[in-house]
Write a structure and sequence with these properties.
The complex is a heterodimer of chains A (1275) and B (176). Chain A has 1275 residues and is of the alpha+beta class. Chain A contains 36 helices and 28 strands. In chain A, the strands form nine sheets. In chain A, strands 4, 5, 6, 8 and 9 form a five-stranded antiparallel sheet that branches. In chain A, strands 7-1-13-10 form a four-stranded antiparallel sheet, with helices on one face. Chain A has a four-stranded mixed sheet with strand order 25-27-28-26, with helices on both faces. In chain A, a hairpin with a 3-residue loop joins strand 27 and strand 28. In chain A, helix 1 packs across helix 7 (111-127), helix 13 (304-325) runs antiparallel to helix 15 (355-404) and helix 20 (717-725) runs antiparallel to helix 21. Chain B has one helix spanning 106-115, and strands at residues 4-5, 7-12, 19-22, 25-27, 31-32, 49-52, 61-69, 75-84, 90-101, 120-121, 138-150. Chain B has a four-stranded antiparallel sheet, with no helix packed on it. In chain B, a hairpin with a 5-residue loop joins strand 7 (61-69) and strand 8. The longest helix of chain B has 10 residues, at 106-115. The chains are: A alpha+beta (1275), B mainly beta (176). The A-B interface holds A 292-293, 295-296, 306, 309-310, 313, 316-317, 409, 411, 535, 537, 585-587, 589, 636, 639-640, 642, 683, 795, 798-799, 809-813, 869-873, 875-880, 882-883, 913, 915-916 and B 13, 15-16, 18-19, 24-25, 52, 54-55, 57, 101, 103-104, 107-108, 111-112, 115, 117, 119-122, 126, 131-136, 157-158, 165-166, 169-176. Chain A: It comes from Sciurus carolinensis.
């Protein structure tokens, strides 16, 4: 009976607890064989679970054979007749419940005997089944009364045993260090390594040991232990000393404490802690509050445009701030640096400490790279979005302005485009993407491998589980033949492992797509110009007349509003600003400074913003709290600061103003509503005033809060030595030493470093001296950057007076505005300095010489520029010579001179400095007085008309050409019948010769007055150089002397210019000083003797030094070719003779062809509107003729030549002439041909002929003949 | 000092000032000493010039040369002087000490005095530059006071900060 009761009890109880027992029993039975595969996610859960589980297993193992139900159990299971239960209890759990946990724990050791008894009872029960119903009640009663048992006793030993199994009592013994550390790891004491370890809080060693033991069992991962094998602990938060002032509890008794003292009564002053000491004269402290102005960032009277403008301005400010910080760039650089670091550490050649640490650092770098990249992407995206937003708002604003057809704000956004190198940009973009993809791929691969590993492990587990499951199922199947319903119970519960899914490998294509997408999202597209927004106030506001009524109303409303500020000191109004009208741009300028003579220590400073509308009452908009300035902030040094304020007022207006605190919308349909509150900024500065002697009028620090200072003194630097003391290193160091700051505490690290740096200066004397050691700090940019600046370069070049930039005006302000091509010419010149350009010179030898000459010229100019900076007294000061008799006499003679009023004289003019002249101001006056012996036209030409009347002034470069032409009028009437009604003539000008005068000569001489020989070609077809016998008498004498033609000229410049400083031809010399003096004397004597003769004693050599001219004087032989005439010249044997190389005839011939070609092309170029025909026949004739001219030196062949030409070109009217010049460059030849004006003939049927002949002489001396002619076919 | 002395001014534009508009060179009226005790010569001669540059190198200077008749009635130079145009905006008063070059010898000095041809600088611009001055000897005589009213524009934009902080007005963005 007894057993039955217990049995029944056991039957019912598990029935009630079914879910739990069911849960627990299944694994309990299976337990010893295999544990279920554990889902990886719930490790800790498993840990907890397994603890209990293991204990249970142990118990079970002691009791029952593993795995199979006992014979009785099986018997019971199949034969027992159960009472129907109200719950949906099933047989199976009941059966299982026989060895259920609850029962086990309840009954423990007693279980086996009960099991034995129940076997008997069952048989009885089976027999007496019918009687059971009747006896049911009695049975129980009997049970209650009858059961008399001894008190249960369990021995202490048993109990202890039980407790030992259930409870865990950690040991008190010290845990050996090796247990607390991972295997094979030596404890590491960071403190010994010099790292800072805070003081650990005090804990009793036993407690610590217990904790350690417990942690070792419960948390086998040892994550509670530090590297030193000790349990982790934060530094003790306790201060070593109490911060409350200590009562002096020395020997004195309490009585002494209570002893009363007499104190004189003091007048009560409220808020005495803010009171400044009574000893100081009142009012000697002063606070200056400068209220500069106020600006609304939102105001009810804002129009929609204003709202956008405020937004735009705010965004632009944000943009500027971001631009200044330029975080994206910083992060990009950092990323680059990190990548480089990874690269270098991956490089096998770099010395490595150990493979392990290296790998570790690389991993660290990689994670850093990941972080940085994420940050950089975020920053870039922000930048881009900001730019987009700015542009969007600006577009909105523009469309709004267009829509409302008036403009309210002068805001104007200019987007400056910075061109980028498309190719480089694309490459950089692509490279960045590729790097990113590479990195991501690497990361993903790592991750994938990790996952794969995990997957494999879990798959193994799952497989094992599955196997077990299958085995069980098989078994179950056997069992299920009788109870098929139990199958439904079987589906695995939540804990049953799911089949793990293998991780998917990353698709590189997908990855690339993602990276590209992100890059496109947050980065500038390659080749897209970089946009720089620039906000200016350059726009104009539509005047009132052109605005609609509502807008005018708004503007009027704005004008009616006045704003003033009240200044509150310690919550008392002390002053207020004047009331100022709100300006159209919602700014108010006060510009007032309030000097507050203060008596109390400032507690609060408040500004109240008041607004008055028209004549109605004022409203308080907002309160602005100003911070009390530091004692070091004094007037004059305080910066202007802005404090924001906002108001919660609700205003609705009946005009364009959007109001405050009420929703409004930009859309026509009223969507996207926006609610803005009145807000703004006050710009102000608060500072302590300075006294007469420059002492700030600040209340002494000692009086501010003396009460608790001393207590904090040791702990807090500021309260101990004051704010100002922080800048005094000695004080600070002293304090640090006194308060025993831990130098290793990271909190103190900056301070310690500062102190060590500051104090070491006293004792540390470096054993070297460095000049300008602080230069580095004052360089505002690096030298490379400076040299990269185009503007700086331009300024430097201009300052150095480099020819290309000498008078460059208006150097642009920004680098970006300076075009690269400005430097191109200059750079080209620098490059070409050593490159010999043969194109212009035709033969290389001449090119080299020309280049050399150019270099010499440059070096001489440089010398000259240097010499210009050496001054003599005469250069600076004009001082009259002491007059001598001759000067006096001359001036006396002048007085006595006869007056000739009719004689015209040229008057002196006022001189003008060149610097205030501009283009076109300078005129060259040429007065052609007379010319004579000008070639005259021969018959059959008509009577001369307008002879030598025309002179053309051609200022080509620096030369003035005076060309003499014969102007001929031709009758071109084609039909005789027309002659009666009109005259149709054509003017032709025939070139006769020229005079060339360099402009510089005119400039330096101020005027040219004299007779010049005209350069006339040796042959002038159709002109005779015979003398005209009908000339005035006066010139006979001159004529008889001359062979050529002459012209008398007077040339001057209008206005008269101050001649430029003449080059002083005194350069430093290496000649003997005595000799130099002697030459000077000699020169002076010569000048006196021969007034008109130029006497040279010294010249400048190529290096710009003064050298005696005699050094260059040596008799030299002329070339042999010229000595054919003097065959027996004995001088040929001179030792240092000049060697005359023969000139290459072929080269000369080639040059001849080239010159001819060039000149022909030029003539065609000069006649752009006409057809230029070349008469080949004539050209060849001329070509044959030119060598004759060279041979005869241009004499006595004219007649033959003309006859020949007439014979060959009889039906042409021919006008032409040969030009004879020495050859140096092509350019003078071209100029000479141009100045003849041959190309100016625009007769329709004109033909040209041009022939060039070069006669070579030794040493590359070339004589050039150019024959130019124009032919017009006679009719 | 003689009763009348005109002055010549010249604005020395050296270096990289890129354009100047207004009177750059000129002669003032002839003035005489005041009748009061101060006995000052007042010209009150206004000069109005605008300079434009993107670089402060060669900041403009004003060069003054004062001429006045000597005892024989010859116009002789009474002083040279130069001063930089102040670079901060506002009203500035500058008093320039004037000087003249000295004769090289006693005899020269006498003859120059006698003939009224005292030594002069070849170019008044010499006093605005330091170069070559070592070869001259000068004597100081008198002062000339100049009053400048300077207005600058966009100095800050070009990166030059010439004014005190408080003249800059509202700081920060003053956009609506």
């Amino acid at each position: 009976m007894v057993s039955e009761k217990s049995h029944l009890g056991s039957q019912q109880e598990p029935g009630q607890e079914e879910p739990e027992t069911g849960l627990l029993s299944v694994p309990a039975r299976r337990g010893p064989r295999s544990l279920p595969p554990i889902p990886a996610a719930s490790r800790t859960g498993f840990a907890e679970f397994s603890m209990r589980e293991r204990m249970r297993e142990k118990l079970q193992a002691a009791r029952a054979p593993p795995g199979f139900p006992s014979a009785e159990e099986a018997y019971n299971f199949f034969t027992f007749n159960f009472d129907p239960e109200p719950e949906e209890s099933e047989e199976k759990p009941k059966g299982k419940a026989r060895d259920g946990t609850s029962q086990e724990e309840e009954e423990g050791e007693e279980e086996p005997p009960v099991l034995g008894a129940s076997k008997m009872d069952e048989e009885e029960l089976l027999n007496g089944k019918d009687a059971e119903d009747f006896l049911l009640g009695l049975d129980h009663v009997a049970d209650d009364f009858v059961a008399i048992r001894p008190a249960d006793y369990e021995s202490v030993h048993v109990w202890l045993q039980k407790e030992k199994e259930i409870l865990f009592i950690p040991s008190r013994l010290t845990v050996p260090t090796y247990k607390k550390l991972p295997e094979n790891v030596q404890p590491r004491f960071l403190e010994d390594e010099g790292l800072y370890i805070g003081a650990r809080p005090e804990v009793a060693p036993t407690n610590q040991n217990i904790m350690e033991n417990r942690l070792l069992v419960q948390e086998p991962e040892r994550r509670w232990f530090g590297d030193d094998g000790r349990i982790l602990a934060l530094p003790s938060p306790l201060r070593p000393y109490p911060s409350r002032p200590q009562l002096s509890t020395r020997e004195q008794s309490t009585k002494a404490e209570l002893e009363t003292l007499y104190r004189k009564a003091v007048k009560y002053v409220h808020s005495s802690k803010h009171m400044i000491g009574s000893g100081d004269p009142p009012g000697s402290f002063q606070l200056d509050i400068d209220i500069s102005g106020l600006i609304f960032t939102h105001h009810p009277c804002f129009s929609r445009e204003h709202v956008l403008a405020a937004k735009l301005a705010q965004l632009y400010d944000q943009y500027l701030a971001r631009q200044q910080r330029n975080k994206a760039k910083f992060l990009t650089d950092k990323l680059q640096a990190l990548r480089n670091a990874v690269q270098t550490s991956l490089n096998p050649e770099t010395p490595q400490q150990s493979l392990d640490t290296n790998q570790k650092t690389i991993n660290e770098y990689k994670s850093e790279i990941r972080q940085t990249r994420k940050l950089r992407d975020a920053e870039q995206e922000k930048d881009r979005n900001l730019l987009k937003t700015i542009i969007k708002v600006w577009k909105e604003m523009k469309s709004l302005r267009e829509f409302q057809r008036f403009t309210n704000t002068p805001l104007k956004l200019v987007l400056r485009k910075e061109k980028v190198d498309q190719k480089a940009d694309e490459e950089a973009y692509e490279a960045e993407i590729q790097t990113e993809i590479k990195e991501l791929l690497e990361e993903h691969t790592e991750e994938y491998e990790e996952k794969m590993e995990e997957y494999r492990a879990s798959y193994q587990q799952w497989k094992a589980w599955k196997k077990a499951q299958r085995a069980k199922k098989k078994k179950k199947k056997e069992a299920a033949e009788e109870h098929p319903a139990e199958e439904t119970e079987e589906p695995p519960r939540g804990e049953d492992p799911v089949k793990p899914v293998p991780p998917e490998p990353t698709d590189p294509g997908e990855l690339e797509r993602r990276v590209r997408e992100r890059a496109a999202h947050c980065r500038r597209r390659p080749g897209e110009p970089i946009l720089h927004p620039e906000l200016s106030l350059a726009g104009s506001v539509t005047p009132n007349e052109q605005c609609p009524r509502v807008e005018v109303l708004r503007r009027e409303d704005v004008r009616r509003r006045w704003v003033y500020l009240k200044v509150l000191f310690n919550n008392k109004e002390v002053s207020r600003t004047v009331s100022r009208q709100l300006s159209a741009d919602f700014q108010v300028h006060f510009g007032q400074i309030f000097n507050l003579q203060i008596f109390n220590w400032p507690e609060s400073l408040t500004l109240q913003v008041y607004e008055t509308i028209g004549h109605s009452s004022t409203t308080l908009l907002a309160e602005v709290f100003l911070p009390i300035p530091e004692t070091t902030v004094v007037t004059g040094r305080a910066p202007m600061e802005e404090v924001e304020f906002s108001s919660n007022q609700h205003v609705t207006l009946d005009h364009e103003g959007v109001g405050s605190g009420v929703p409004f919308s930009f859309e026509a349909d009223g969507s996207n509503q926006l609610t803005l509150m009145t807000s703004g900024k006050v710009s102000h500065s608060v500072a302590w005033a300075l006294g007469e002697n420059g002492i700030p009028l600040v209340p002494p620090l000692s009086q501010q809060n003396i009460g608790f200072r001393s207590a904090l003194k040791r702990a807090d630097a500021i309260s101990s030595i004051g704010t100002s003391g922080l800048t005094d290193m000695k004080k600070l160091a002293k304090w640090a030493a006194e308060s025993k700051l831990d130098p290793n505490d990271p909190n103190n690290a900056p301070l310690m470093q500062l102190i060590s740096v500051a104090t070491s200066g006293e004792s540390y004397v470096p054993d070297f001296f460095r000049l300008e050691q602080l230069q580095q700090e004052f360089n505002f940019v690096s030298d490379e950057e400076l040299s990269r600046s185009k503007r700086f370069r331009l300024l430097c070049l201009r300052s150095q007076e480099v020819p290309e930039f000498r008078n460059y005006k208006q150097v642009p302000v920004y680098d970006r505005e300076i075009m690269e091509k400005i430097f191109q010419d200059y750079e080209k010149r620098l490059r070409d300095r050593n490159v010999i350009e043969t194109k212009d010179h035709i033969d290389t030898h001449r090119a080299i010489v020309a280049k050399y000459l150019q270099q010499v010229r440059e070096s001489v100019i440089n010398r000259f520029l240097l010499a210009k900076h050496h001054f003599l007294l005469t250069d600076l000061v004009v001082e009259e010579e002491v007059p001598n008799i001759s000067i006096l006499g001359l001036s006396l003679f002048k007085l006595a001179e006869q007056k000739r009023p009719l004689r015209p004289r040229r008057k002196g003019r006022k001189k003008v400095t060149a610097q205030n002249l501009s283009d076109g101001d300078i005129k060259l006056l040429v007065n052609i007085v007379r010319a004579y012996d000008i070639p005259v036209r021969k018959p059959p030409a008509r009577a001369p008309n307008g002879d030598y009347s025309s002179a053309s002034l051609q200022s080509v470069k620096d030369d003035v050409f005076i060309n003499i032409f014969d102007e001929v009028l031709y009758d071109v009437s084609e039909d005789d019948r027309e002659r009666g009604s009109g005259i149709h003539t054509r003017i032709e000008r025939h070139w006769l010769g020229c005079v060339k005068i360099p402009f510089s000569t005119i400039y330096f001489q101020a005027r040219i007055d004299g007779t010049f020989k005209i350069d006339i070609p040796p042959v002038l077809l159709g002109y005779s150089k015979e003398r005209n016998m009908i000339l005035e008498r006066g010139f006979d004498s001159v004529r008889s002397l001359s062979e050529g033609s002459y012209i008398t000229l007077f040339i001057t410049i209008e206005p008269q210019l101050v001649p430029g400083e003449s080059v002083r031809e005194k350069f430093e010399s290496q000649e003997d000083e005595k000799l130099l003096q002697a030459t000077e004397k000699f020169q002076a004597e010569c000048a006196l003797k021969f007034l008109n003769r130029q006497c040279l004693t010294t010249v400048i050599d190529m290096s710009g030094k003064t050298v005696f001219v005699t050094r260059y004087l040596k008799p030299l032989n002329p070339p042999k070719e010229l000595l054919n005439a003097y065959p027996n010249n004995p001088q040929a044997t001179a030792p240092e003779e000049l060697i005359y190389q023969r000139t290459d005839k072929a080269a000369a011939a080639e040059l001849q062809d080239r010159i001819e070609k060039i000149l022909k092309e030029k003539i065609m170029d000069w006649r752009p509107r006409h057809l230029t025909r070349w008469n080949r026949y004539c050209t060849s004739t001329l070509r044959h003729f030119l060598p004759l001219l060279e041979r005869s030196q241009g004499e006595d062949i004219e007649d033959d030549h003309r006859a020949e030409l007439l014979k060959q070109l009889g039906d042409y009217r021919f006008s032409g002439f040969p030009l004879h010049m020495p050859y140096s460059e092509v350019k003078p030849l071209i100029e000479a041909v141009y100045s003849t004006g041959v190309h100016n003939i625009d007769v329709p049927n004109v033909e040209f002929a041009l022939a060039v002949y070069i006669h070579p002489y030794p040493k590359n001396v070339l004589s050039v003949w150019i024959y130019v002619a124009s032919l017009i076919r006679n009719r | 000092m003689a009763a009348a002395s005109p002055s010549v001014f010249l604005l020395m534009v050296n270096g990289q000032v890129e354009s100047a508009q207004g009177l750059e060179e000129g002669i003032s009226q002839i003035t005489s000493k005041s009748q009061d005790v101060r006995r000052v010569l007042v010209w009150n001669f206004p000069i109005d010039v605008t300079f434009k540059s993107t670089n402060p190198y060669g900041w403009p200077q004003i060069v003054l040369s004062v001429y006045g008749p000597d005892v024989f009635g010859n116009d002789v130079v009474r002083g040279y002087g130069a001063v930089h145009v102040p670079f901060s905006p506002g009203r500035h008063k500058r008093t320039i000490p004037m000087f003249v070059p000295e004769s090289t010898s006693k005899l020269q000095k006498f003859t120059s005095w006698f003939m009224g041809r005292r030594p002069e600088y070849t170019d008044p611009k010499v006093v605005a530059q330091g170069e070559g001055r070592e070869v001259t000897r000068v004597r100081s005589q008198g002062f000339v006071t100049l009053l400048f009213n300077v207005v600058t524009k966009d100095m800050r934009k070009l990166g030059y900060d010439t004014g005190p902080v408080d003249t800059q007005g509202l700081q920060g963005p003053s956009l609506p």
